[in-house]
Amino acid sequence: MASLTSSVVLATLGEDRPPKIGPGMAEAMIEFQSVTKRYQGGQPAVDNLTMSIDKGAITVLVGPSGCGKTTSLRMINRMVEPSSGTITVAGKDVSTVPAAQLRRSMGYVMQSSGLLPHRSVLDNIATVPRLNGVSKGDARKRAAELLDVVGLASVLGKRYPSQLSGGQQQRVGVARALAADPPVLLMDEPFSAVDPVVRDELQQELLRLQRELAKTIVFVTHDIDEATVLGDKVAVFAVGGKLAQYAAPEEILRAPANDFVASFVGRDRGFRHLAFDVADSVRLHPVTMVGQTEGQNAGRRTGEWALVVDDESRPLGWSSPRDGAGLIPGGSLFHKGDTLRRALDSALSSPSGLGVAVDDDGRVAGVLKAPEVLALIEEVRRHREDAT
Ligand code: ADP
Ligand code: MG
Known about the structure:
By secondary structure, this protein is an alpha/beta fold. The protein has two domains: about 5-105 and about 180-265, 3-Layer(aba) Sandwich (Rossmann fold); about 290-375, CBS-domain, CATH 3.10.580.10. The chain is about 40% helix and about 20% strand. It has helices spanning about 5-10, 70-75, 100-105, 120-125, 125-130, 135-150, 165-180, 195-215, 225-230, 250-255, 260-265, 270-275, 280, 290-295, 300, 340-350, 370-385; strands at about 30-40, 45-55, 60, 85-90, 90-95, 105-110, 185-190, 215-220, 235-240, 240-245, 290, 305-310, 315-320, 335, 355-360, 365-370. The strands form four sheets. A six-stranded mixed sheet has the order 6-7-8-3-9-10, with helices on both faces. It has a four-stranded antiparallel sheet with strand order 2-1-4-5, covered by helices on one side. The structure holds adenosine-5'-diphosphate (ADP) and magnesium ion. Adenosine-5'-diphosphate binds near residues 69, 70 and 71.
């Protein structure tokens, strides 16, 4: 996506540094180090928070009302200052970045869309680029592109916010947050005020967008279902601003860290998620991929199964670590959104035991492992039994 101001923003955030961690491990984008916030010296709203937020992933802060989610979020862009501790973004201590500059370098979406009522939708979206010195014409052009990105018809650009539905207003809020192409998006209960059907739509839309944009998103919600649908990782907060558990959603559903998390997660909620959002539940792993020419012996050479792909990264077959040269045809493919049954079929039908997942263009998106799919199926079965 074309960016008007990203180079400025990235320079601000120190994004030009080399990654700190090697391949295969998530790189941290935002780090809380022993962060405590007391308002007016009272009980901590956030209590000694240490957590590392992955770059290019959706991290959800979830918990009951008053547990410090909003406070934590707002300390990232200095809308709230910590009482003690340090927060870094892309390795840079945020307290050293002027607050106004920091805020413009991160998209922010709230529960009430926060749109300016007397400005057209297009001008609302163009707000931050205009503040960053982008010309009116360019900013409007970009705003019109973003309407399309968030799934709104271009005719809506001329309307005023009050002439849109709640769901449409939230989409405009997301478009506005994306306008300066910030690497980080902060979202505070952005979908909590719309009805459940629209909410599901907005969640799916955000996941679709994220597959294209790969932003670092910190998303606050009180709704564990929303957290497990959206989160690559989920941080469960307990009253008193304490981090109770921080893990992948599957892990939180399967093995709640304590009684608080268990009761917050609830029994049947995990089942709902696993039953209807299969694509988000199945974990994809990276796989060694080789081109056709060098591919025939790759397995023998490397001692592990290698996936042979064509020039467009579409799977052709497997190269075995044991057998001689030659391509072994690979089993059924798993497409995002397929059922658990299909996921298992892809893994069990593959000579390597690794099911090949492909994107809409048929390109390899990763591989899935039979034991993990089986564990998910077992979990669905258990929840179903529990529910009856
Ligand atoms: P959440 O977003 O999880 O509902 P908040 O971060 O908004 O929680 O609030 C955490 C705690 O801090 C609550 O007890 C709340 O009353 C208190 N709090 C939040 N903002 C302020 C403020 N500006 N002044 C005083 N107390 C606040
Ligand atoms: Mg809040």
